Amino acid sequence: MSYLVLARKYRPRDFATLVGQEHVVQALSNALDRQRLHHAYLFTGTRGVGKTTISRILAKALNCTGADGQGGITSQPCGACDACRDIDAGRFVDYVELDAASNRGVEEITQLLDQAVYKPVVGRFKVYMIDEVHMLSNHAFNAMLKTLEEPPDYLKFVLATTDPQKVPPTVLSRCLQFNLRPMAPETMQSHLASVLTQEGLAAEPGALRLISRAAQGSMRDALSLADQAIAFGAGTLAEAGVRQMLGAVDRSHALRLVEALALRDGAAVIAAVDGLRALGLSAGGTLEEMASLLQQMAVAQAVPDALDAQDPETPAVRRLAGLLAADETQLLYSIVLHGRAELGLAPDEYSGLVMVLLRLLAFAPEQGATPRKLKSDTAAPGAAPVASAAQAQAAAPTTFTPKPRSPAVAAASRPVARAVASSPEPPPWEELPNDEPHGAAPWQADEPAVAAAGAAAAASTAAAPELQPTALGDRWASEVRAMVDAGSIAALARELALQAQCVAIDGLRWRLRVEREALAAPAQRDRLQAALRAARDEAVELEIEVGPTQDTPARRDAAELAQRQQAAEKIIHDDPLVQALMRQYSTARIVPGSIKPH
User: Fold this and answer.
1) What mean pLDDT is reported for the chain?
2) CA–CA separation, 176 vs 40, rounded Å?
3) Which end of the chain has fewer CB atoms surrounding its CB within 10 Å, N or C?
4) Which residues lie below 8 Å from residue 217, measured CB to CB, with a gap of 6+?
5) What is the pTM of this model?
6) What pLDDT score does 463 carry?
7) What integer pLDDT is reported at residue 398 of this predicted model?
């Protein structure tokens, strides 16, 4: 007896055994039960999601006579009557399946429609199923329009396509359209487990998970891959064997690469790529696995409980999600997706992979930088806003430096502090109103005017933020700085630590206060509590309350930055070269906010 492949052997024969398309099953079942039958149905969806299967079940539901021969139209065909058995066997004379990919001309469609005038031979309805209907020619579509709009009462059309965009609107308007969804990996994994159990075959959950991912939403592909895996493993589906068969990259490689990127460890990244090359693993598969991992990390950061708790990889995904901020995860995901398209342009795929990974390192923020805040965040009162390097560069206007008039002035020119213009005010070289008498030489500007201009520029810069030191401020700031430097807190947990004020310490119970209620979420508290316990090696308990703050690590950092800012501005204003230029050019001035300390 010849072997029957799993995709055919376990094709669903009724709506009850059909998986993954509950929305279509519900609509068709209700229509059959209420006898509200349309004359034309259009099923759309990718390959292997059940278009032909649903068509055959619908044909059986329309023509089923029941086991006793007295049944009528039903949503639960018996599977035992002559009509049900013949449709399953493909020999029911009143059910016709036409492949439009190979019968796309007007002659084939005309021949089919010529038979429509005759009543069913043995069944209750004639059912014409046209697969890949979008492949029909324009003349063929036009030939069937009239019959499709007003067919005889005994004739039903079922159209199926993977590309509904190519079906003319005149055909779409005559059909009830059902969009069959791609199967979820969890649905396919569960169905594969059920099928293999019925076959009496052993399968590791990891192997079924790999097959479900590789099938990309197609149940038929999943069953075909399962057939191939059974042959490859001699009747046993082991994760290692299936991974080798598919040529898939082990998730451990993606975990190692993402962790190295999160730690800014370039040497570990290159070593991991060399390991992939030695194993002969695909660079494209590596980026695909990294994209899948980063997607799960983004989900874990947004909705921590959304990941499958039964998946053995979930703890590793959650651990990596804590190493990266949410915006960094999104950036890595975007670069990985675009990097897959660039592999074909590289000298070889591994050099292309190296460049994509180095790009991830190049765009990553520097270690020790002030944590970036989302646009939706609101800064604590009194905290000075800190712009990122990219924002400062984007906001910086082109600067103009007048040439010195003498070697002495040129020798005195040396960098004192890095100036980055971020003020919306006009640059100093634009013409400003001059109230001096006409004909006055520019170098005749008096000393008080220069001093007043310097004082005004200094006063216009950011003043020190409002900071009221508390008794526990130094202790909490040192704890937070140690955890940040160690990289044990990231994303919202790091923001919580920086924006919190320690208001009380009672033994192992620490009470913190934050102004933003969003930071007081239990998930962020638990992460910060775990990091603090690891840092102090004590069972510390954190309590978070919402209220006004006066002394937080973020305010201390802002106050220190403001002091450095004032010191840098004083150096610039007191510099002899700057004072000489301001005397020499009557309109010269220092743009407020343009001076940044090293």
Assistant:
1) 80
2) 6
3) N
4) 46, 48, 49, 181, 182, 183, 184
5) 0.54
6) 46
7) 36
Structural domains in the chain?
6-179 (3.40.50.300), 185-246 (1.10.8.60), 251-363 (1.20.272.10), 473-549 (3.30.300.150)
**Could you tell me if 44 and 175 are in contact, meaning their C-beta atoms sit under 8 angstroms apart?**
no
- Would you give the DSSP letter of residue 406? S
Pairing mode of beta strands 176-179, 202-203: unpaired
Q: 513 has which bridge partners?
A: 501, 545
- Among 138, 145, 153, 139, smallest CA distance to 172 is for 145
Determine the residue type at 84: C
Q: What is the mean pLDDT of residues 98-113?
A: 89
Q: How many residues does the chain have?
A: 598
Q: What is the pLDDT of residue 54?
A: 93
The answer to whether the beta carbons of residues 498 and 379 sit under 8 Å apart is no
Instruction: Name the residue with tokens 């004590």.
Output: 538
Please tell me the least confidently modeled range out of 186-195, 289-298, 378-387: 378-387
DSSP string, 17-37: G--S-HHHHHHHHHHHHTT--
For residue 589, pLDDT beyond 90: no
Say if CB 236 and CB 271 are below 8 A apart: no
- What is the H or E stretch that residue 58 is in? helix 51-63
pLDDT-derived band of residue 450, with 50, 70 and 90 as boundaries? very low
How far apart, in whole angstroms, are the C-alpha atoms of residue 573 and residue 567? 10
40 Cβ partners below 8 Å, 6+ apart?
A: 148, 151, 156, 157, 158, 159, 174, 175, 176
Question: What 3-state DSSP class applies to 176?
Answer: strand
Helix axes 576-584 and 447-460, enclosed angle (nearest 10): 120
- Amino acid 61 reads A
3-state helix, strand, coil in the chain (%, to 5): 55, 10, 40
